[in-house]
Amino acid sequence: MKGSIVDVPGVLVGQAEDPEALTGCTVIRVPGGATGGVDIRGSAPGTRETDLLNPVNQVDRVHAVCLTGGSAFGLEAATGVMRFLEEQKDGLNVGVGVVPIVPAAVLFDLALGLASVRPNAAMGYEAADRASRKAVGEGNVGAGCGASVGKFAGMERAMKSGLGTSSRRLENGLTVGAIVAVNAVGNVRDPATGTILAGARDENGGFLDFIDQFGRKKENAGYTGTHTTIAVVAMNADLTKTETNKVAQMAHNGLARTIVPVHTMYDGDTVFTLATGEVKASVDLAGALSAEVLAEAVVRGVKAARGAGGLPAWRDNQENG
C-alpha cells in the first residue's frame, strides 16, 4: 500500500505543473474505463462532461478525470487528455474510432502566481502520458500547485495548501482511494482534534473565525474571484452508475469534516467517483469509507504544501518552530 489513490487496482495518476506560474493539472486514468459518478456542492463550479454522469444519461464508462487549475481556462487541459487517450485507443468505441470520456473540474488559482498562464492541452497531454501506479506527489504539484485556503479575509491573510491523497483497504478486499486539490474559501481543520491547520490568519499568529469575520462585513469584499476544492474518489467496488453518484454525494462529508465553511457561493466543490467493479460492496460502506479517506487526503494536502506566492504553509510553520 502506497497510501494513495493508486492503491486501487487499475487506477493511474499523472501530474504536470508550472511552479513559477503556480498552476497545474492532475489526471486520474482508468484504462479500459470505470463506472463514473459526480456530485457538485459548491455554487461556483467549472466543469466539463458532468451532465454525462447523470444516471439518466447513456454513457456510464469514464476513461480519465482531469483536475486542473486555471479557472474555466484550465478546462482546455482535458482536450490534451482526450488526445492522448485517443492515441492509446482507450475510449468509447463509436464504430469509426474511439471517443475518450474525460470529465473535468477546475479550481480558481489565478490570484496566485501568473494569472496569464493556465493549464492547456499540452499540459493535459503531458500529465496523461505520465500517469502510472508510482507514488503520487503531494503538496505543490499538479492541480494543487497554486491552491490556497482561508481566503474569506482576503488573499493577504490566506495560506498555501496543495494536493493530497490517501487510501484504505478492508479485509474483504474493498480498496478506496482519494485525491484532492484543496483550494477553499474556508479554513482547514484536523477532524480528529478540531485544530485549524491552515486558514485565514490574524495578527497574533492565530486564525480568524469565519462567522465572526463575515458577520462584520457589509458586502463580500474579502472574496477574490472564486475558489473550489476538487477531488476524485476511486474504488474497486462493483457499483452501478446511480450508486457511484450516491457515493460521490456521501464523499462530500469528508470535505465538510475538514473545511469550514465548505460548499459556499464562492466554491465550486466537486467530487467524482470511479468504481472499477472487482469487489461486491454496499453503497453505504463505500460512501462512508470514501468520506473518511477524502478527509485524510484533505489534511495531507495541507500538510504537504510549502509556502509559495507570498503565502505561508502549515509545513513551513512546523519547520520554523
For this entry, give a set of tags.
321 residues; alpha+beta; nine-stranded mixed sheet; three-stranded antiparallel sheet; 16 strands; 27% strand
Taking all Cα atoms into account, the compactness measure Rg is: 18 Å
Q: Tell me the major beta sheet.
A: 9 strands, mixed
Q: How far do the termini sit from each other? A: 32 Å
What structural class is derived from the secondary structure elements? Answer: alpha+beta
Mean pLDDT: 94
Instruction: Please tell me what the overall shape is.
Output: globular
CATH topology: L-amino peptidase D-ALA esterase/amidase
Overview of the structural elements:
It comes from Desmospora profundinema. Belongs to the peptidase S58 family. This is L-aminopeptidase/D-esterase-like protein. This protein is α+β, with helices and mostly antiparallel strands and 321 residues long. The chain has a single domain, classed as L-amino peptidase D-ALA esterase/amidase (4-Layer Sandwich). Helix content is 23%, strand content 27%. The protein is built from six helices and 16 strands. The strands form four sheets. Strands 1, 2, 3, 4, 7, 10, 11, 14 and 16 form a nine-stranded mixed β-sheet that branches. A three-stranded antiparallel β-sheet has the order 13-12-15. Strand 5 and strand 6 form a beta hairpin. Helix 4 crosses helix 5. The chain is globular, with a radius of gyration of 18 Å. The two termini are 32 Å apart. 60% of the residues are buried.
